[in-house]
Amino acid sequence: MTRHWRAAAAALFALLLLLMMMGQAPAAALPRATQKLLADLKLAPDILAGLDKELDFPASWIEEAKREGALRVSGTWDPDQFRRMNEAFLERYPFIKQSYTRGNRQERVLAPLIAFQAGRSIMDVMSGIGAAFAAYKEAGALEDLRVLPNFDNVPVGMRDEGGLWVGERLRYWCMSYNTQLVSKEHLPAQWDDLLSDPIWRDHRLAIADRPNLWIGNIWAAPGYGADWGKRFIAGLFSTVQPQVRKEGANALVTLVAAGEFYGAVPTADFRARQYSDKGAPVGWHCPLPVPMSISEMGVLKGNPHPAAARLWVSWFLSKEGQIAQYAAIRSPPVHRALQTKEFLSFPEQIVGRKMAFREPGVLERELPHLFEAWNPWFQGTASEKQ
Length: 386
Prior knowledge:
The chain is α/β, with parallel strands linked by helices and 386 residues long. It has two domains: 51-169 and 294-343, Periplasmic binding protein-like II (D-Maltodextrin-Binding Protein, domain 2), CATH 3.40.190.10; 171-293 and 346-385, Periplasmic binding protein-like II (D-Maltodextrin-Binding Protein, domain 2, 3-Layer(aba) Sandwich), CATH 3.40.190. The chain contains 17 helices and ten strands. The longest helix is centred in the N-terminal third of the chain and has 19 residues, at 3-21.
């Protein structure tokens, strides 16, 4: 071996030793999908420091998952997003065949619970449980996720301390708007400003039937509360007179891009980013306070693929899983080490600004009161009585 080759070999050994000391896996040890997404996102490999420890699952889980060979997941990801998000997982665990259901709330959340109560199992992992958590809890339908090695990657307040759900991603629910129809001076600084600017009146603003995603957060914020919420809801419908839409919140962004209306509420930041990245005239704006919530994930008790479910959920909560989700849908990670501006679609709308955080336990208590105030207006019965 020549002197130059010996020097190169020594340098390579020193680099590998440094990587191991940092807890960082060499690039060659990472799935190709992970290497690609790091390159696409222009992220340094050291962002995955400690990944080996996060993926050090019990050998018994691996063997049991091999025997099970399957996993059923429901969620709100688009099918292609789910496929891209799981490429690294399937490289690591190719013996697990995944099936995925993306439907409405009835199909992906309520149907598995109804089946469980009837003694059947049609799903293993449910994401986006939301307000259905109370019914799942009452039915005793959820596994304890505290056994997962990566459960503690999720900060307190963003997981159920009893282990019945764990946060899968952060969500910021504000408003999307058509940048060709609305200039920035008409973007409300606070939510109450939405009621006073005439540009949003006369059906130019679209509203989805999801007040729990934005008003529910503000309702629970210090200085607001139920009295503010009731006044705001009444002013929104009587003064602004928005378009009441039956579509889901995500579908409304498509119509904003098409100019069907000036703006829509609520819209998640990553959904608006998906459209703006494609060149659509869609912007995203947050009046204060910024509504922030957690999407919840749970594992159905008594499902036929318990090891595969534990393996997948714990991988999903690792740095690799959370970055893979961000790469697929630009959804902010819930991993405590990744809650940084690099993983925000519109950081200028979020960083350093006042948050209205909706912890799911608060939602569970306040949701009936919220919908008691909201439903008559959304359904048109309140305006008929005036």
